[in-house]
Amino acid sequence: MTAETDKPGDSEGKRRKPKRQVSLARRLMTVATVWSMLALAVAGIVLAGLYRAASERAFDAQLGVYLKTIVANMVPDGNVAGDSDAEGDLVRKPQGLGEPRFDLPFSGWYWTVIDHASNEVLFASPSLVGDMLQVGQGDRQEPDTSYFAIGPAEQEVRVRRLTVEINGNNYDIIVAAETDDFREDVRQFRRLVLLTMVILGAGLLGAIYLQVRVGLKPLKRLGGSLIEVRRGLAEKIDEDLPGELAPLAVELNALIHANREVVERSRTHVGNLAHALKTPLSVITNEARSTEGEFADKVGEQATLMSTQIQHHLERARMAAQRRVIGVSCELTPVLERMVSAMSKIYRDKDVAFDMPDTDELSDLRFRGEQQDLEEMVGNLLDNACKWADLEVQISVAAVSQEESARALFEICVEDDGPGLSEDQRLEAVKRGKRLDETVPGTGLGLSIVADLAGVYGGEFELSRSDKGGLKATLLLPSV
Amino acid sequence: MRLLVVEDDADLNRQLTDSLVEAGYAVDTAFDGEEGHFLGDTEPYDAVVLDLGLPKIDGLSVLENWRRDGHKMPVLILTARDRWSDKVAGIDAGADDYVAKPFHMEEILARVRALVRRAAGHASNELTCGELRLDLRASRVTLNGSPIKLTSHEYRVLSYLMHHQGKVISRTELTEHLYEQDFDRDSNTVEVFVGRLRKKVGSDLIETVRGLGYRLGEPVDG
């Protein structure tokens, strides 16, 4: 059986967890990492492209030198626009270009001279071994053009074609060279770029990680400080924070302070109200009881009703004031010892033996809440147990680990060897203002106050039958 | 038995006093902490009913001061602040019991009775001396089972002697615990009450110890 309590307090412990947002650190890391990697990749691609273009230009320039040498060799007496030579030819066969690969068969380096008008091959390098250089001519309208093609021996070649006019005739001079070296060069550069980018990327990732860690450290400290305050281990948040966060800490501290003041004021007000109302009520009740007659009976009856109502609403007011207290906790052991000592004095006539747990083992246990509330709960449980016990009241305490909940809890169990309660009586006992036996003094609110207070702290209160024969009251409360 | 009631509410103070007087006690009253502290400090009370919310000096401080000065009389505190923290604070300060307001007078009477009885070392609400019985709950005296009619002063003398059986009680002590503070005391009247009591309960129960006082005890044969 679990005590029914009002929703606000009850919901605190059981409210549904909101979907967890991605952490700030992860967001920063992800965005910075994706952006850096993208930038590095683009930079790598652009660099490789630029290098390839530059390499092509340099290769073309090299081919251009050969073209010019061929042209210079073709012109009789070196005069492009001059007369024909002694044999009457318009051009001469180019000789000795200074590149031995043009003379080696299928070396990958070729040249050929074609008559532009007739498309007839006039001269070709010895490396072609009489074959024709079939690499196309690119855009025929362009006098100077470069392109890639597949040459003899199925090799990829870079082709440069130049159309020149010598002695009134147009000639297409084509030089082709294998691209293996050029390609290898570009590939090597790409590998270098990739390696550089990987190293740079790793360095950047490290820098991002450090930046996020160091940058978010004060935020983490603020969070830790807030947790300590909430758990009651610290009174206020540490304000020694960077400029951006310090005002937040100051405001939070002001809020905590205001919260405590409001609670303190409410408590004083409730106490004063209690005093102001209860003394006249005592007078009315006793006056009515000592007077005979119907009127006196009515007054007495109503005064008792008022008293119960006042008691109940004062408790509610106290709880409403206490529910929002931030950052309070208290040690369990001194409260237990103090209450047992008080009970021993109050119930000394009954000579009840208290079976206490080993307080040394419990020295670490702290209740996350107001000491007064813990005293109220423990006091009511012990008071009830002492009222009904024959000889013995047993108190046991244990820390509880809850798998499903992240909250730390502890359990206080108070058992007596008295007559106990039936199932129905146990249900009734935790309802407000119920007194099962009017012959034993008390307001009848004790166990229901315990149930309400336990609810306020998101705890649980349960009554069951003790092995000792009497009542077993189990209280589950949050610990620090 | 003489009691002190410290309560600032005049009506409640009157009700408490009336009920306690009716139950056979001599009762002094105080309406603030200062007056209450003074009386408790100077008069020998058998028990004190002390409200915690008092003007001038609060009840808790009054109690602490008494205990610090070595006064051991049992104290019942009345408190409107009925949380266990308040009750325990009272008990820690030296109170022997507490009653939360609003209360029924029967509860106060029962608690006071228990405090006085306990302070004198008795476990039961029925005090006996031979065939003489004093029922504290009903304020009734019987001898051999037959009720004996006593005046209030006779009852107070007998009650005090019954609570302190076997001890020699001086006339002064008896007088101090018999009358209220402002009563015109005359220790000779004690002798008159004792004389009347002897006639009602038997002359051999109350022994006169010459020069010291009286002692109540079972008569020793021979």
Q: Give the CATH topology of the largest domain in chain A.
A: Beta-Lactamase
Estimated radius of gyration of chain B: 18 Å
Percentage of residues in strands of chain B: 15-25%
Structural class by secondary-structure content of chain A: alpha+beta
Largest sheet, strands/sense/barrel of chain A:
5 strands, antiparallel
Largest sheet data of chain B = 5 strands, parallel
Mean pLDDT, all residues of chain A: 82
Count of helix runs of chain B = 8
- Name of the CATH class of the largest domain in chain A: Alpha Beta
Your description of this structure?
The complex is a heterodimer of chains A (480) and B (222). Chain A is an alpha+beta fold and 480 residues long. Chain A has 3 domains: 23-225, Beta-Lactamase (2-Layer Sandwich); 232-327; 328-480, Heat Shock Protein 90. Chain A is 49% helix and 16% strand. Chain A has helices at residues 7-14, 24-74, 180-231, 246-289, 294-322, 332-346, 371-388, 423-429, 446-456; strands at 109-115, 121-124, 144-150, 156-166, 169-178, 330-331, 353-355, 366-367, 392-400, 409-416, 460-465, 471-478. In chain A, the strands form 3 sheets. Chain A has a 5-stranded antiparallel sheet. In chain A, helix 4 runs antiparallel to helix 5. The longest helix of chain A has 52 residues, at 180-231. Chain A is rod-shaped. Chain B is an alpha/beta fold and 222 residues long. Chain B folds into 2 domains: 2-119, Rossmann fold (3-Layer(aba) Sandwich); 126-216, Arc Repressor Mutant, subunit A, CATH 1.10.10. Chain B is 41% helix and 22% strand. Chain B has 8 helices and 12 strands. Chain B has helices at 10-22, 33-42, 59-68, 84-92, 105-119, 152-163, 171-176, 187-201, and strands at 2-6, 26-30, 47-51, 75-79, 97-100, 126-129, 132-135, 140-143, 146-148, 168-169, 206-209, 213-216. In chain B, the strands form 3 sheets. Chain B has a 5-stranded parallel sheet, with helices on both faces. Chain B is globular and about 50 Å long. The mean pLDDT of chain B is 86. At the A-B interface, helix 4, helix 5, helix 6 and helix 7 of A face helix 1, helix 4, strand 5 and helix 5 of B.
